[in-house]
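Quick one: DUF4123 domain-containing protein from Alloalcanivorax balearicus MACL04, structure tokens please.
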Amino acid sequence: MSRAGSLAQPGKRNHDGVASLLTRAAQSSAGAYLLVDPFLATWRQARDRLRIPVSNDVTVVKVGYAGITDDHCPHLIRWKSRDDTWLRHSMMLADEEQADGGQESVKGLMISGWLFSDEAPATIAHHLARISTLRHPKAGRCYLRWADRRVLEWMWPSFSSCQRRRLLGPINAWYTLNRRGGLIEYQTPKEERESEEHFLPPLTVEQWKRAEQGQLVQTLLRGWAGGNTEALPEDYLLQAGNAIQGALTLGLSRQRDVLLLAGYTLQIHPRLAEHPSVIEVVQRSRKTGVPLQAALQEIEDPSGWERIRKELSEHAPRQGAAIDRKESAT
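--- reply ---
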């Protein structure tokens, strides 16, 4: 289950988020935790930014992957309902670190999310470490950073109910902040939770492809938000994913070209990559070596793009159907 929080002003948004977490903590006997991922920083830097109370228990999630020391591993921090000021601070940091796309691309996101579990911290940390390494069919053993909330949000929709149960394991509920500043809740029905330790089932070929597209999608989203994350639509992840996929289906491989066409897709029409004029421009660019940015300028702006938008809007997608080239030129 996953649902996004409502749109609100930054101050109110954080207040509502804290209230939701504290209410749940007060009504449940489960332990409450903050998961932090200092992958691109250090634990000391994360600790200083978070101002963690001395009394709070901290457990390292030892991922056991080559080159990742404890200083860069995720950390699980237990908090109590009386820690409302500190909790509010952690949510404000989560909001701030995604407000600047340039900084995010360099420093990443440190705040992973807020977890609830009936199990001991060591059990939760062991589970998180256990599911963090998977075997890629070609690359072999690799590290999937579920502690990066962008990875979790991107991959969750593609998971089966079994994969979701195994991913959460002993975690009753996992909250993260989405790009609009709302809370997402990940959980499975109580009766379906796994009572024993299990590895995460292997990802399918399509899921590995999705994982590999994740970085492109996040780069596109940073540019789309442009520092105003509240302006993103509720289905921003679906739109961005479809835009990237559309560009890839045309055979584009260079990151800047994929992002360029995907950006046009977000502005013009979700099925932009299906239009004959766009397909022709992309094919000519690939064949002649003309930069895609220059090739796309052959389409007159704004009249040419308006025509393309209108034609795509008037022709609903049908199996095997396409816009006729002669019609598109009238």
